[in-house]
Amino acid sequence: MNRRTDPPSIPFIDVAAQRRRLGSAVDAAVARVFNHCQFILGPEVRAFEAELAAFCGAKHVITCASGTDALVLALRARGIGPGDAVLCPSFTFCATAEVAALVGATPVFVDVDAATFNIEANAIAAAVATAKSAGLTPKAVIPVDLFGLPADHAAVSAAAKAAELFVLDDAAQGFGGIYQNRRLGTFGDATATSFFPAKPLGCYGDGGAVMTDDDEMADVLRSLRVHGHGDDKYDNIRIGLTSRLDTVQAAILIEKLKILPDEIEARNKAARCYTDGLGDVVTVPTVPAGSTSVWAQYTIRVAGGRRDALAASLKAEGIPTAIYYPIPLHLQQAYKHFPVGKGGVAVCTRLAAEVISLPMHAYLDAPTQDRIIDAVRRALKA
Ligand SMILES: Cc1ncc(COP(=O)(O)O)c(C=O)c1O
After folding, report:
1. How many other CB atoms are there within 10 angstroms of residue 54's CB atom?
2. 4-35: per-residue pLDDT in tens?
């Protein structure tokens, strides 16, 4: 007797497939840490920092406990605080603006480009003017490499230079990406990234890092991540925090970094497959010439209020989707009292109503992608 079976459900991000690939290498790396017992700032932390610096080309890598802490540490290292304005996009994960508020500064929201979803560099000058007219001192801008695509760093840096802003790249989603032949980690004054498990380079818990070429800032960051210590560890010369990457996580990341280039390649192959299969029915992501995305998300735009119906019909076929992000920050309760740059953030609001992300990871196989593409096409025709 023939029984109809539902097709298996598809993971949105397949951390388990990568775990199977890494298998015993990760087990052995973790076992080494359990044997030497240097759980805090052990040898793997130093080794990983050196390998990450070599990978991205930054002079210094200072690991810490999360991507959010990486952003906070960089703002603190720069002395940004009350009375200062920190410009950032409204269409991003909350941490980008949260860190400005956490150090006592004021986030000022800037619109994004509709094609790349990244900060609109042409809107930075207007947001600087808004900050000034609110009595704030514009100090920094945080471009975000959203969904894995590098922001337009040349344009951001020119606008920041004109207004004397510190540029802190939020590469939590884009680390590994390339802009004008250079890896992220080398743009602006400092770069922050996250090793949250779902990120393109994720660990098995929380973790983050700051990258910079500035020797003085690197020293301050190393002090800040351990309570603001001076030359002697019990002589504290500034107020810091406890924000270190666990040695176990560093050991895992050393193994994961080895396969990152290969995974970035696989993610790009998967992205090309989606773009070829869907480009005629929805707005697919744009990658400007000279940039390589790491595809933290593959995000399409579905206009005309059809997004929820698409999500529901894909769900019914065992295909998960996610909305990153349904509410732009300037409309959220915790952030709506912060200023929006002159010119507004209309693109952020529109994108929040239209975006939907499809399953994306380095282990998507062709039959699975064909199934997803076919389901999206059928749902949009219905
Ligand atoms: C753009 C962006 N910035 C910052 C963060 C914060 O990273 P973490 O979760 O490691 O604190 C994230 C994490 O999702 C992010 O996507």
Report:
1. 11
2. 567 778 999 999 999 999 989 999 999 999 99
Structure confidence at residue 105 as a pLDDT band (50, 70, 90): very high
Angle made by CA atoms 211, 214, 215, in degrees to the nearest 5: 105
Alpha-carbon gap, residue 144 to 154, rounded angstroms:
14
Q: What is the separation of C-alpha 250 from the centre of its chain, rounded to a whole number of angstroms?
A: 19
Alpha helices in 141-286 (DSSP H): 153-162, 215-224, 247-278
Q: Which atom of ligand 1 is nearest to the CA of 66?
A: 10
Best residue for ligand 1 mutational test, from 71, 75, 98, 173 (most atoms within 8 Å of Cβ) = 173
pLDDT of residue 2: 47
Between CA 359 and CA 322 the distance in angstroms is 8
Do 281 and 186 meet the contact criterion of CB atoms below 8 Å apart? no
Q: Give the span between the Cα atoms of 255 and 262, in whole angstroms.
A: 13
Task: Give residue 254's pLDDT band: very low, low, confident or very high (50, 70, 90).
Answer: very high
DSSP string, 1-54: -----PPPPPPSS-HHHHHHHHHHHHHHHHHHHHHH---BS-HHHHHHHHHHHH
List the residue whose alpha carbon is closest to atom 7 of ligand 1: 67
Q: How far is the CA of 344 from the centre of ligand 1 (A)?
A: 24
179 prior amide bond cis, ω within 30: no
Whether 74 has a pLDDT exceeding 70, the answer reads: yes
Kindly state if the Cβ of 169 falls inside 6 Å of ligand 1. Answer: no
Strand 166-170 versus strand 190-194 pairing type:
parallel
pLDDT digits (tens, 9 = 90+) for 146-178: 999 999 999 999 999 999 999 999 999 999 999
Q: How confident is the model at residue 128 (pLDDT cuts 50, 70, 90)?
A: very high
Locus of tokens 């080794």: 47
Query: What distance in angstroms lies between residue 359's CA and the mean position of ligand 1's atoms?
Result: 19
